[in-house]
Amino acid sequence: MNEKSRHLPSLNALRAFEVTSRHLSFRAAAEEIGVTQSAVAQLVRGLETDLGVKLFLRLPKQLALTDEGRAYGTDIRRAFQLFGEATLAIRPVQRSLTISATPTFAAKWLLPRLPAFMAAHPELELRILASESLASFQTDGVDIAVRQGQPPFGPGLVSELLFEQRVIAVCSPAYQPAAAEALKKENLDALVLLRDTHNLWPEFIGSGLRLATGTEAKGVRFNHTSLAIDAAIAGQGITLASDFLVEADLAAGRLVKAFDVSIHGRHDFHVVAPREPKHPGATNIVRNWLVAQRGQR
C-alpha cells in the first residue's frame, strides 16, 4: 500500500458525504443510502474530523456546502461514477430481466417497441409480466415496473415519470359522426360508451365535455383497457384511453378522436425499480431505454 492510500477516509464516510452533497439534507441522504439520518450525520462529522476541513455549513433549516466541500464533492462524485462504470464493465450482464406492466401498456405500447430494443440488446432476455394486480419486486422476481399513480411507490424504490395520463375519447372513423351529433345535441344517450375498470367517463363528461354526468348512455364494461380500445376500433362505441396508448391507432386511421377535448387522469405512468436492483447493469439499460422512448412519441 502506498503512502497516499494509507490516508484515504472510509468508503462509507465518502459515500455519505457524496449523497448528502447532492441532497443538502441528512434525511434525504439517509433515505437514498438506506440507513438512519443520525448515521449519515455521524459519518459526515467523522469525515470532517478526519480531513480537518469543514464540508458543510449547518444552517437553521438546511445544509450548505462550504467552498472546500463543493470542490471535494465534485471530485468524489466523479470517483464514484468511475467505480460504477468499472463495476458494470467487469460484471457479466444478467441475461434475463422481468418487466411488470398492465396488460394494456404491454400490448399497446411496450410490445410494438420490443423488436427494436432486442435488436440493440441481443444479450438480454426480457420476461413481460402483464397483470392488473400489483406485482412484487421480491416475491414475483420483478426487476423493473411501469406503474400508475403518484410517488413514492414504496420504501427502497425509485421512480421516474414516463407519461402523464392525458385521457382522450376515441372511436372508429365510422362512429365519429354519431359522436359529433350527440355532442351537438348535448345528449350522449344514443352512444355506446365502452368502459374499463377505471371508468373515467363521469369525470370526462363533466369536466371535459361540460355536460351533465347523469347520462343514460348505453355501455359495455371491460376488465382491460386494451379490450375497450379494440372494441372501439371495431366500431362498437367510444372508449377513453391515455393518449400515448392509442397513438399508433390514431396515426394509422384505425381510430379518431370522438371529441376534441382531453382531461388529465388520476394516475400518471412511472418507471419504478429498486434503489439497489439485483441486476443493476441490465436494469439500468432497460430503465434508460424506457425513459428515452418518451421523447420519441
UniProtKB/TrEMBL annotation:
Decide whether keyword Oxidoreductase is in the record. no
GO terms assigned for molecular function: DNA-binding transcription factor activity; sequence-specific DNA binding
Please provide the record's keywords in A-Z order. DNA-binding, Transcription, Transcription regulation
Task: List the InterPro entries.
Answer: LysR-type_TF_proteobact-type (IPR058163), LysR_HTH_N (IPR000847), LysR_subst-bd (IPR005119), WH-like_DNA-bd_sf (IPR036388), WH_DNA-bd_sf (IPR036390)
Q: Which GO terms describe its biological process?
A: DNA-templated transcription
The reply to whether Nucleus figures as a keyword in the UniProt entry is no
**Database matches in SUPFAM superfamilies:** Periplasmic binding protein-like II, Winged helix' DNA-binding domain
Fetch the CDD domains from UniProt: PBP2_GcdR_TrpI_HvrB_AmpR_like (cd08432)
* Lineage top rank: taxon: Bacteria
Q: What PANTHER family does this protein's entry cite?
A: HTH-TYPE TRANSCRIPTIONAL REGULATOR, HTH-TYPE TRANSCRIPTIONAL REGULATOR TRPI
Q: Which family does it belong to?
A: Belongs to the LysR transcriptional regulatory family.
- Protein name as catalogued: LysR family transcriptional regulator
Q: The organism's lineage?
A: Bacteria, Pseudomonadati, Pseudomonadota, Alphaproteobacteria, Hyphomicrobiales
